[in-house]
Amino acid sequence: MGQYQTDALVLGVKNWGEADKIITLLSRDHGKIIATAFGCRRPKSPLAGALQMFNEVDIQLTRGNKLDTVRQVSLKHANRTMSADFSAMAYGSFVAELASNLAVEGFPQSDMYDKLREIFDAFGSRNHRIAALAAAFQILEFSGMQLSYERCIRSNVEIDGDAYFSIEAGGAVDKSVIRTDDRDAMEYPAALRVFIGQLLKLNWLDKPAFTVNGKIMVQAEELLLRYLYHVFGRPMKSLKFIQQL
Fold first, then answer.
1. What per-residue confidence (pLDDT) applies to 116?
2. How far apart are CA 95 and CA 133, in angstroms?
3. Using CA atoms, how far apart are residues 188 and 84, in angstroms rounded to an integer?
4. pTM reported for the whole predicted model
5. Could you tell me which of 126, 162, 119 has the C-alpha nearest to residue 141?
6. In angstroms, rounded to a whole number, what is the distance separating the alpha carbons of residues 182 and 174?
7. Cβ pair 113, 27 in contact under 8 A
8. Is the distance from CB of 130 to CB of 212 less than 8 angstroms?
9. Tell me: the pLDDT tens digits for 139-186?
10. Residues whose CB falls within 8 Å of the CB of residue 244, separated by 6 or more in sequence, listed in order
11. Which 3 state secondary structure label does DSSP give 147?
């Protein structure tokens, strides 16, 4: 069984057995990696400090039939905001869970990796709820599951004014071609389309240059969560964490 070394972001940590953990990682070169960290929960384990959620690590692993095994790990960057702020941790967990669900094992994910690094660092200076929403819409763009926000999914005409949004069809639907059997269609006002466009273009290295309407933000969250439920067939586990805020 071969060994390999890579930089990775820690997207998930789950206790396993008496002293071990199952770690979900995202690597530029190897995509999603699920690995066992034996003895990681013991106080003197050399693996314990680095393998925390949202950390960036330099990690050495051994390939296994089902799960890889962590051999050595060193911390490259710790996200202090995520570990100290309960709200940032909750919304960051949503972003990490989404990235983990969309990432592919064995497939390079350099775009998603670099975007997540920017997103996690930005949680220290941005509204956590807005940051998580923008992150989710942007991550979808790297997954091959991007939605059609500006053009009608049926007629391919550019949307002008209010419209509808079909979760099943995966995009905006002009009022002229909406059908009576579009039971999953939700209202898609022009203000929501503009807001989603702003989220998609948000530069994580700069401060946001737009204001947020509470009603529109709720509509954007509803659209996103309905689509994710349609894709995954279940609600995101991290939503329970957010509901505790």
1. 95
2. 8
3. 37
4. 0.94
5. 119
6. 12
7. yes
8. yes
9. 998 887 889 999 999 999 999 999 999 999 999 999 999 998 888 899
10. 90
11. coil
